[in-house]
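Table S2 (continued). Query chain:
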Amino acid sequence: MARAPFAFRENGAARWCEEASRSGSTAVIVATAALWYPYVNGDTEGTEMTSNGYLLQTVDLRVSRENREILRGVNLVIQPNAVHAVLGLNGSGKSTLAYTLAGSGGYTPSRGQILFEGRDIVPLGISERGKLGITLAWQEPARFEGLTVERYLGLGMREPDHQRVEEALEAVALDRSYLQRYVDDTLSGGERKRVELAAVYAMRPKLAILDEPDSGIDTLSLNDIAQLIHRMATEGTSVLLISHRHEVVAIADVASLICEGVIVQTADPTTVCDRYACCCRPCDHVAPVESEAEYERL
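Corresponding output:
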């Protein structure tokens, strides 16, 4: 947890933090990192699509944490405009995969490639990947003091677009009354999660990585999440869903099962969910689930 003022790059977040500093406001932040580095059309020179047509591909991806190998040769392919789910038990490497793809600090691969539109992005940090169009929505939704929902949804845009902000709220089944509410503890966890997903939608990223998008959301709201995800895909965003729940995986076009840091199956969601239900059991060798303090967001 950190406090403003911040020295972000040239985007809406920087403008807001400068204003907050001048006014004496204090922002308590648990941030969605990619929001500070908005994707802008035209910022992707040198990232031509490969002949195989994949948006993202990992090749023998290996990542270690505290001298323990968590990802042990992940091979994954994500197609353009597709919804791809990664299903696995807690500790199987799902979140580590998400943080590695986004470029979070402490998650540099020891081996392998991450190809985004044909370019190996392993050397790039989280900000550079954000500029290419990769966005990560954290499992824990953001909390701010002194920042309205309207301003928050505009942070990932080069120029705030009020119509797009309202569309983003509508996409997560929140009405206009939320625009002037604050992104803090006055919102429930489910409301903050919806606002976080709305912020990702508003950015129009090329790839949205959603880590446990149903976290804090009641079962009835899963229909809203499903509609949002398919709306994003229809508008040109590929979505990588990270989850341990069958209901979420059913939203996807294709699913991969991860076990002990290895993708063991990729198929249609029903086939993968059946194998998960039949074969996956908690075991002693899985890695403990990391707490928020154990990874670096910015």
